[in-house]
Write a structure and sequence with these properties.
alpha+beta; 3 domains; 14 helices; globular
C-alpha cells in the first residue's frame, strides 16, 4: 500500500518556482565525502495533519494543516513567503493539493488556504470533494487508486528526490554539512456515524519502503473513533537523509503500490440524476470509466451503461426540468474515432442540443454510434457525453471542448493520446491566446511543427534577458518586460507553443552545473553525496506528432539551439503530468 499519494512537502513548493541560473558549459565540482558517517546531521521536521469527513451521501470535505516547528527551515520559509508573497504561495499549494487528489480520481470543487508565519510556519487548507464514496448496491466503497500509475509513480519519486535535494541545500545555507528531514503525517478518514462493518485492506499491514541508506517511509492504518464516528487513521513517517543517495526507482513504487480500499455498510443513498451525472462526469474527467453505473433513486435501482447514460444526458439537455429518465437498453456500435482538431474549440449549446436530439432518435432503435459526426469533426461518444455533462454542470451557452483523457485521437492521420489535450490549457502563469502571443506567432509561425517548436525556442532565447526575481511573473509580464529566469523563459515558451496548438509541459529538476549562486540564492544549488554539483532548473518538453516529446531549453537560440537535446546532464527531473496540468488550470480558472 506504499505511497498512495504525494507527500506535499515544503521543498516541493520551493522547487516549483525554480530559482536557478542556466549555465550551458558545466564542470562537475567534486566534494569529498570521506568520513561522512561521523557528521552529525541537522534534523528538520514537518508535521502534516489531515482530516477527511465523508457525509451520508458519500461526499467529502476536509481540512489540513502543514507546519514546521521552530528551526532554520521555518525561518527560511517565513522569509521566503514574505519575499514571494502569501498569495503566490497559497495558489501554488492549492494547485499541488488539487493534483494530489486528482491523482486518485478525486475532484476538489472548492478549496481555500491560509499561510501563517507568526509562530511556526503553517499552511492551512480546507476543501470539498464530491463523490468520495460510492454505493455499490450492498455497501459503500472508497477506493484510492492511482488513475495513471506510471505518471503517479514518476511524480512521487521526483517529489522524494526534490525534497531530499532542496532541504539539503537549505541546510547548507545555514552552515550544516548534512541534514535529516522527518515528515510526520496523520490522515483521518472519518465516516458517517451510522457506518457499520468498516473494513480496510490496509488494517493488517505495516507499510515499509526503503529509499536508500538512511531514507525510508513507514506507515500503518488503524480503526478508531472520532466524536462518535468511525475513523480510519493512517500514520506515516518519511525520513530523508541527505548524506546518502536515494536509490529507489519508479518500478519499485509501482511494484509495492496497492490501492487503498475502504468499505462500510448502512445508509442506502437516494440520489437524483443531477448527482448521478456529476459522479459519471468526474470518472470521465480522470479517465476512470466503469462498465456500468448504479443509479439509486426513489424506488429505482438501475445499472446504466455509458450508452444509456448518454441517452439520458441527451434527454436531460433537450427537456430540462421536464426530463423523465429512461432505462431502455442502448448499445454502442461501430469504431470509436475522434479528431484532434476539435480540441479546445468553442461548442455552442444550440448545436450540441441538435446532436443530442439525433442521439435520442438513434437510441430509440436500441443503439448509438461510437463516433459522432459534428460540424467541428468526428467526436468519440464518450467525449460527447463528457461535453454534455460539463455543459449541464456549468449551465452555459458555450463550452470549450476537451476529450476524455483515456484512449486516442487522430491528429493529421497520426494517432496521439487524448490526454495530450490538457497540455494546451492555460494556468496562473501561462496565459495563452493573448494579443501579444498571437502577434509573436504571426512572425514565427511555420506549418512544419518541428520547425515551429524551434522558432519558438529561438524567440524566447533571443528576446528575453536573464534576470533573477523571487516573485514569479506571468508569461505576459515577461513578454512585456523582456526579462526573466528559467521558469519565466519556460512559461513564455508554453504560452506561445500552446497557443500554436503544440502540447507542451514544464519540466522542473536538478541539473549538473558549477554555477555559484549569488547571495540569497544558495538554496538553488547543492552537492550530492556522489559528488555532483547540481542546481534547480526549469525547462520545457514539446510534443510533435509522429516524433513524440522533445526536450527544449528555452534560453537557447540560433546557432546553438537546444531542441531535442539539452546542454547539461539532468540529475532529477519532474515532467508536468496531464493531471497536474488540470490542477494548474482549475486553480487559475475554475473546474473543467
Amino acid at each position: 500500500m506504499v505511497k498512495k499519494n504525494v507527500v506535499i512537502s515544503i521543498a516541493m513548493l520551493i522547487a516549483a518556482f525554480c530559482m536557478s541560473v542556466w549555465v550551458i558549459h558545466t564542470h562537475m565540482e567534486k566534494t569529498s565525502f570521506e568520513n561522512l558517517e561521523i557528521i552529525q546531521p541537522k534534523l528538520f521536521k514537518e508535521v502534516h495533519e489531515t482530516r477527511i469527513f465523508v457525509d451520508e451521501g458519500g461526499n467529502g470535505y476536509g481540512w489540513a494543516e502543514l507546519s514546521i516547528p521552530p528551526s532554520e527551515l521555518a525561518d527560511f520559509m517565513k522569509s521566503f513567503v514574505l519575499t514571494v508573497g502569501t498569495d503566490i504561495i497559497q495558489q501554488e499549494y492549492e494547485s499541488i493539493w488539487r493534483s494530489s487528489f486528482s491523482m486518485l480520481g478525486i475532484e476538489i470543487d472548492l478549496i481555500e488556504s491560509m499561510v501563517k508565519i507568526e509562530e511556526n510556519f503553517t499552511i492551512l487548507l480546507n476543501w470539498r470533494s464530491p463523490h468520495v464514496a460510492r454505493w455499490d448496491g450492498n455497501k459503500w466503497v472508497i477506493e484510492m487508486a492511482w488513475v495513471d500509475p506510471d505518471s503517479a509513480a514518476s511524480e512521487i519519486l521526483s517529489g522524494i528526490l526534490t525534497s531530499w535535494l532542496t532541504v539539503a541545500s537549505i541546510a547548507k545555507e545555514y552552515g550544516y554539512k548534512a541534514c535529516v528531514m522527518e515528515m510526520h503525517s496523520t490522515t483521518r478518514i472519518i465516516l458517517p456515524e451510522w457506518a457499520e462493518n468498516v473494513w480496510c485492506n490496509a488494517f493488517e499491514n505495516e507499510e515499509h519502503m526503503e529509499y536508500g541508506r538512511g531514507s525510508y517511509s513507514l506507515g500503518r492504518f488503524t480503526l478508531s473513533q472520532e466524536n462518535g464516528r468511525p475513523a480510519i487513521i493512517e500514520e506515516e513517517l518519511e525520513v530523508l537523509d541527505s548524506r546518502y543517495l536515494i536509490e529507489i526507482r519508479t518500478e519499485n513504487l509501482l511494484e509495492n503500490h496497492a490501492p487503498l480500499l475502504i468499505t462500510y455498510s448502512g445508509g442506502r443513498p437516494v440520489e437524483n440524476f443531477e448527482g448521478f451525472f456529476s459522479r459519471v462526469r468526474i470518472d470521465l474527467k480522470f479517465g476512470r470509466i466503469r462498465d456500468a453505473y448504479l443509479f439509486s433513486g426513489d424506488n429505482v435501482f438501475e445499472n446504466l451503461t455509458l450508452g444509456q447514460i448518454l441517452y439520458n444526458a441527451s434527454l436531460f439537455l433537450l427537456n430540462g426540468e421536464n426530463f423523465s429518465p429512461s432505462f431502455i437498453p442502448v448499445i454502442v456500435v461501430g469504431e470509436e474515432v475522434g479528431d484532434w482538431n476539435v480540441v479546445l474549440r468553442e461548442l455552442n449549446r444550440e448545436n450540441l442540443t441538435l446532436l443530442a436530439g439525433e442521439i435520442v432518435a438513434q437510441a430509440a432503435t436500441g443503439s448509438i454510434p461510437a463516433s459522432i459526426q459534428t460540424v467541428w469533426g468526428q467526436m468519440r461518444y464518450r467525449d460527447f457525453l463528457y461535453t454534455i455533462l460539463r455543459l449541464l454542470r456549468e449551465n452555459s451557452d458555450v463550452i470549450t471542448f476537451l476529450p476524455v483523457p483515456d484512449g486516442v485521437l487522430f491528429w493529421d492521420n497520426v494517432i496521439v493520446e487524448a490526454k495530450l489535450a490538457y497540455y494546451l490549457l492555460p494556468d496562473s502563469f501561462v496565459l495563452t491566446g493573448t494579443e501579444m502571443v498571437r502577434e509573436i506567432l504571426k512572425n514565427i509561425y511555420d506549418e512544419n511543427k518541428r520547425k515551429l517548436a524551434e522558432e519558438i525556442c529561438n524567440w524566447t532565447g533571443s528576446n528575453i534577458l536573464y534576470s533573477l526575481s523571487f516573485r514569479p511573473p506571468t508569461s505576459e509580464e515577461v513578454i512585456e518586460s523582456k526579462r526573466g529566469q528559467c521558469r519565466d523563459y519556460s512559461n513564455v515558451y508554453l504560452a506561445i507553443a500552446r497557443t500554436a496548438g503544440l502540447p507542451s509541459r514544464i519540466v522542473n529538476g536538478w541539473v549538473e552545473s558549477d554555477w555559484i549562486p549569488p547571495a540569497g540564492w544558495g538554496f538553488g544549488a547543492t552537492t550530492t553525496p556522489d559528488g555532483k554539483r547540481v542546481i534547480l532548473h526549469a525547462w520545457v518538453q514539446v510534443f510533435i506528432p509522429a516524433v513524440g516529446w522533445l526536450d527544449v531549453e528555452p534560453q537557447s537560440m540560433y546557432p546553438q539551439l537546444y531542441v531535442g537535446v539539452l546542454p547539461y546532464s539532468v540529475y532529477v527531473r519532474s515532467n508536468q503530468s496531464w493531471i497536474e496540468a488540470i490542477a494548474s488550470y482549475e486553480t487559475a480558472r475554475g473546474l473543467i
